[in-house]
Write a structure and sequence with these properties.
Shape: globular
CATH class of the largest domain: Alpha Beta
CATH topology of the largest domain: Rossmann fold
CATH architecture of the largest domain: 3-Layer(aba) Sandwich
Number of helices: 6
Strand content: 15-25%
Number of domains: 2
Order of helices and strands: HHHHEEEEHEHEE
Distance between the termini: 32 Å
CATH superfamily of the largest domain: Vaccinia Virus protein VP39
Length: 202
């Protein structure tokens, strides 16, 4: 069953949940259906992000790591950033996605990220699977890249992932070359092929 299918079942079983439960309790109930044992978090690409990429980003960051797009299989990433270290902040335009967001969560489009964050204050922005699923057009991508570049500190990093079976390679977009250089990040390679369709550039 897909994530969307499971969510429909939950909302059908608890149609009153979101309306009457306090948000922290509703969030706890929803996340209980997508625990560490959920099949969605055990996909190889998700394991790599949770166990390799995110810990590396935490270890080498000092200020803030932004994660773009929230879903039932992403809320676990905040655990990597518990304790001392950089702030972990999420952003998603869908109000319902707040349940999967971090303690510090922004409800808005990533193109408006620079409206919430001071220039040059972010170590890393992670945007995997959003290009082509929310950031859809060439203009969308340009606005997104410009907004992200504005908040990254000098030497800051954009982690950009996309599905090659549905989305053109963003490396071919002129704005990417204008604003970013493929460089990798410490122990992370500049390009990671997670499976036959998902590619991540750093």
């Amino acid at each position: 069953m897909t994530v969307a299918g499971v969510l429909k079942l939950i909302h059908r079983a608890f149609p009153w949940g979101k309306k009457f439960l306090p948000f922290p309790l509703f969030q706890y109930v929803m996340r209980g259906f997508f625990s560490d044992e959920s099949c969605f978090v055990h996909l190889a690409r998700r394991r790599w992000m949770r166990d390799v990429m995110m810990p590396s980003l935490r270890h080498h960051s000092s200020r803030a790591v932004f994660f773009v797009g929230c879903a039932p299989y992403t809320w676990h990433y905040e655990r990597v950033f518990e304790g001392s270290g950089p702030d972990y902040i999420t952003i998603d335009p869908m109000p319902a996605a707040r349940v999967w967001g971090s303690t510090r969560h922004i409800v808005d489009r990533v193109q408006r990220l620079d409206k919430y964050v001071d220039p040059g204050t972010v170590d890393v922005v992670v945007m995997v699977g959003v290009y082509g699923f929310g950031v859809n057009t060439s203009q969308d991508l340009r606005e997104t890249l410009e907004s992200i570049r504005g908040v990254l500190k000098e030497g800051g990093v954009l982690v950009l992932g996309w599905y090659s079976d549905t989305t053109p390679d963003p490396a071919e977009h002129p704005s990417l070359d204008d604003l970013f250089v493929a460089s990798g990040y410490h122990d992370l390679l500049p390009r990671k092929q997670c499976n036959e369709t998902l590619t991540v550039d750093i």
